[in-house]
Design a protein that fits this description.
Elements (H helix, E strand, L loop, with lengths): L2 H6 L3 H14 L5 H12 L5 H13 L4 H25 L3 E2 L2 E2 L1 H27 L3 H25 L6 H26 L4 H25 L13 H4 L5 H8 L3 H13 L4 H14 L1 H20 L6 H15 L3
Antiparallel strand pairs: 1-2
Length: 324
Amino acid sequence: MNELKKIKQPVAVQIKDFEVKFNSSMQSSVPLLNKITKYILKRKGKQMRPLFVFLSANMHGDVCESTYSAASLIELLHTATLIHDDVVDDSNMRRGFFSLNALWKNKISVLVGDFLLSRGLLLAMNNKEYDLLQIVSRATQEMSEGELLQIEKARRLDIEEGVYFEIIRKKTASLIASCCACGTSSVGADEVTVQKMHKFGEFVGIAFQIKDDLLDYEKSSVIGKPKGVDIKEKKMTLPLIYLLNNSSDKEKRKLIRTIKYSNNVPQKVLELISKVKASGGIEYATKVMERYRDEALMILNEFPKNQYRDSLERLVMYTTERKK
């Protein structure tokens, strides 16, 4: 049994039940919509978001219908944002599958995203889950703001570390934070506990994103070279920001020119990766990631020990030790 399966074990039955409820929440009287949602369900990933919801809920109380609503609400809104992201990025692939816009074009993709968004909102309203709706709506707002902030700052390619953390807190961490907060809120936990779990999820999300940054500098098993995808896409990641912050003004301008104009030249990308490694950028980003990971674990340690807390601890370790 692999590590993720072991982590899921305490809530495996609940996640199976959730899948049935989630599938039914996507049903429509329009045949085309049902065909597309069936395709979406077929390509589901590791189910990290429902896992955070159910582990957080079980750690603080008894799972109820509200918990299933929380997981469905987050999954519906998140799936909608992914579909819209693929349209914005003009991306043809997601998780090794064709994206919706590659198969059904942009107009239909945007409308499907809108449909899922409205299903999530109606689910919360019909079940009077106003607290959950507030948590998830705030996360959706922050994800949009983070994306726009990244687009705005990417033009100059000179992002300060503080701005980088604001971007990843909003773009990535806000969703994991809302999973933990919604799961905790769904079982009737008090506001202080909900806020603590929100902060826990935020720290995990930041550590998760820094790990993503680091994976881009690791060797690919296929070609034996670092992927360098972030550099090709002109994304300013923590190891690269560290290199820029520790370079002379002249060298910094040269590096930014390389990212701007030679980001698709393999040799130039490999040279840039070598400079990041030589600068100590990998070690620096790893230490920062570990700091956020440890902050998250410290919050968990404030709560009584049980199998759900154990699984959450292992999930935190998994997010920072994964190989892809």
